[in-house]
Write a structure and sequence with these properties.
By secondary structure, this protein is of the alpha/beta class. The protein is built from seven helices and four strands, in the order βαββαβααααα. 39% of the residues lie in helices and 6% in strands. Strands 3-2-1-4 form a four-stranded parallel β-sheet, with helices on one face. α1 (18-29) links the parallel β1 (10-12) and β2 (34-36). The mean pLDDT is 88.
Length: 172
């Protein structure tokens, strides 16, 4: 059974991510007051029955405007738990945690730790160093590397950028 408890309100962004919707539902079921901020009106997480407020904010890829908005929101409504639900927000909240912590409750590790997780090359290197088995992975540095990868890789093959931080792929 779930227990209701009194808690600080949570602020989530990226309402078009399914992970945000899952977080809203999870927090809401425990009675956490949830605010979801997003740049578009019709983002799925904004319309959850557990959302108490759904203010508009700049898109996260407009990081300067987004951070300015966050600081203003936090100054006007201090004490929210700022919870990242995407690579972009995990990195931004970590990189700006000193300023954000003046108004928000955070649980952000240092930027170096977040970047090591979000950068596929760094994550691969750290995993290899600890002995964790990883799928064969290539990190081409120049176009001429692609011919060798094609000979070795076979199919299926997943191609991704090394990091997706503030990368507008359109995929959610």
């Amino acid at each position: 059974t779930r227990t209701r408890f009194d808690s600080s309100p949570a602020l989530l962004t990226n309402a078009d991510f399914y992970g945000t919707l899952a977080a809203v539902r999870s927090l809401g079921r425990y009675g956490v007051p949830v605010t979801v901020a997003h740049h578009a009106l019709f983002a799925p997480a904004s319309w959850s029955r557990f959302v108490r407020q759904a203010p508009r904010c700049p898109a996260t890829f407009r990081s300067d405007a987004f951070l300015h908005w966050l600081l203003g929101f936090g100054a006007a409504r201090p004490g929210h738990v700022l919870y990242p639900t995407s690579d972009d927000t995990a990195f931004l909240f970590s990189a700006h945690r000193a300023a954000l912590s003046r108004h928000f409750q955070l649980c952000q590790p240092p930027p170096e730790a977040v970047y090591a997780l979000l950068n596929k090359r760094r994550l691969y290197e750290e995993s290899q160093a600890t002995g964790l088995k990883m799928p064969r992975t290539w990190f081409p540095d120049r176009a001429s590397d692609l011919a060798e990868i094609r000979r070795q890789a076979g199919v299926p093959l997943v191609i991704k950028p090394v990091t997706q931080i503030l990368f507008r792929s359109g995929a959610r």
